[in-house]
Amino acid sequence: MKLELKRVAFKDTYTIGKLFINGEYFCDTLEDKNRDLNHDGDLKDAGEEKIQDETCIPFGTYKVIINMSNRFKRLMPLLLNVPGFDGIRIHNGINKDHTSGCILVGFNKAIGILSESKNTFEKLLLKLQSSNDDIVIHIS
């Protein structure tokens, strides 16, 4: 299964994107601020330093697994081998204060806020769990 996150709005404190599943639009996303300024998949260039809990993950392609989150005490999608980040999950949340580097899902109907996030997350989790294929996410 291929997830594609197309980042579409780069704001001062957050990033909005569109999430596609196998080429079909599924929902919007909300992440922390993009600091991968040249979109090269790392935060090693001048002006690209990571700020803990205020930086979205670098552009790139990552394997996704479903496993138990110790923090949330439930099964959730986890992105693997994200350079400089640990525990990056896809989950529900309303605004940038809920991200801590993770990808929030829902619908961006108001500035900097997601609606229908919990329901959207549950639908996404069901889709991912029903897949017999490996799951990857490409972030552009």
Structure at a glance:
This protein has 140 residues and is mainly beta. Helices cover 10% and strands 43% of the residues. Strands 1, 2, 3, 4, 5, 6, 7, 8 and 9 form a 9-stranded mixed beta sheet that branches.
Topology:
Elements: E1 2-10, E2 14-21, E3 24-32, E4 60-69, E5 74-79, E6 90-91, E7 103-110, E8 113-115, H1 117-130, E9 135-139
Parallel strand pairs: 1-9, 6-7
Antiparallel strand pairs: 1-2, 2-3, 3-7, 4-5, 4-9, 7-8
What does this structure look like?
This protein is mainly beta and 140 residues long. The chain has 1 helix and 9 strands, in the order E-E-E-E-E-E-E-E-H-E. The longest helix is centred in the C-terminal third of the chain and has 14 residues, at 117-130. The two termini are 17 Å apart. The relative contact order is 0.24.
Distance between the termini: 17 Å
* Helix content range: 10-25%
Task: Report the uncertain regions.
Answer: none
Number of helices: 1
What is the C-alpha radius of gyration, as a whole number of Å? 14 Å
Number of strands: 9
Shape: globular
Reported for the largest beta sheet, the result is:
9 strands, mixed
User: What is the total domain count?
Assistant: 1
Q: Structural class per helix/strand content?
A: mainly beta
SSE topology string: EEEEEEEEHE
Average pLDDT figure:
96
**Strand residue percentage:** 35-45%
